[in-house]
Specification:
This protein is α+β, with helices and mostly antiparallel strands. It has 4 helices and 6 strands; from the N terminus they run E-H-E-H-H-H-E-E-E-E. The chain is globular, with a radius of gyration of 18 Å.
């Protein structure tokens, strides 16, 4: 299996994107011998829609017309802070080895912070069995704690 190819990158931005755009342009440069690119896709109003992006899933859906022509074998969807701090090659390799339809990176959050995140409930094999977007009450996710961490839950960045 070839190593993960991180050479065709679309960055979808909506607001406060100057720092992210600067980081991307300074970090991801490709030589003339690779078929790589970084394309920043700013939020846009089109003939199809005149509203702004309504979250990550909406951003991906509205930008598929730009993404599909590159014929990607995998699509990695990240929040802005993840672009700055994580190396995703290991996760992509695991995703390909397991032949998963989707792989999601999460991190532990406390019950007190759970209402700021999308929260996942996973089974013993690590498969997602339920999801709650920014649960309003701790009762909404009671019993979802990770084993060995009484107050840790799987949180997705908003």
């Amino acid at each position: 299996m070839p190593p993960p190819d991180l050479s065709k990158i679309f960055v979808i931005t909506q607001f406060n994107s100057a720092s992210l755009n600067r980081h991307v342009s300074m970090t991801y440069t490709f030589d003339a011998f690779r078929d790589g690119f970084v394309t920043v896709l700013a939020a846009e109003q089109t003939l199809d829609t005149n509203d702004w992006l309504q979250g990550t899933a909406d951003a991906v859906r509205k930008n598929l017309r730009h993404i599909r022509p590159s014929n990607p074998s995998d699509v990695l969807i990240l929040s802005g802070d993840h672009i700055y701090w994580m190396d995703y090659r290991g996760m992509i390799a695991l995703h390909r080895r397991s032949r998963a339809d989707i792989t999601i990176a999460t991190y532990p959050v406390t019950l007190a912070d759970a209402n700021r995140y999308g929260i996942l409930q996973v089974n013993d094999e690590g498969r997602i069995v339920e999801f709650k977007e920014k649960p309003e009450s701790p009762a909404d996710i009671r019993g979802w704690e990770l084993s060995g961490r009484s107050l840790s839950l799987c949180g997705l960045q908003p």
